[in-house]
Amino acid sequence: MPVQQLVDDIAGAIRSVDQSGIPFKEFRPGAGPYGEPQLVKLIAGYLVSKCGDRYSGARTCRNPDVLIPGKWALEFKIVRPFGDNDREAENWSQNLLHPYPGNVSSIGDAIKLLARDGPEQRGVIVICYEHEPPKIDLLRLVEAFELISRQLLGLPLGDRCSAMLRDCVHPVHKRTTVFGWSLHAAQG
Q: Structurally, how many domains does the chain consist of?
């Protein structure tokens, strides 16, 4: 399955969560405030129920975040520079850029995926929430992730695919962009 199809389907899942009107905890409605484990669980459920022909058996796991047996092993990260209260969060960019094995950044996730056994393609998914128009250009962060991954660490990161959702429900997280990359690991 092409990475772009995967990214488009994940964006569809996020749109469904966003439009459901169900707030996460005490936050305002919209997909933006959901925590990573909670959002990933909803995404996996959507993929199975709405796109079951492509995602049969998809489930959340500890490692990887989502396993689609025989197809994909996926790690997810959320990038949210502003909170529900519209204040800039501290340390929000380290979810992507911390370049060391064993940490919880997307780079650490990529390293972990490359060490994983199994026949599945490996993929990194990053979900970015922004204002409309953005107050902080998250594309710079995404490009920095690619630069560090490829040039400094030599990770076999594939081409970037993306899908953008505009007019999201949350007043701060009005734009959502889903980015996805495959990792070209030896299969086995």
A: 1
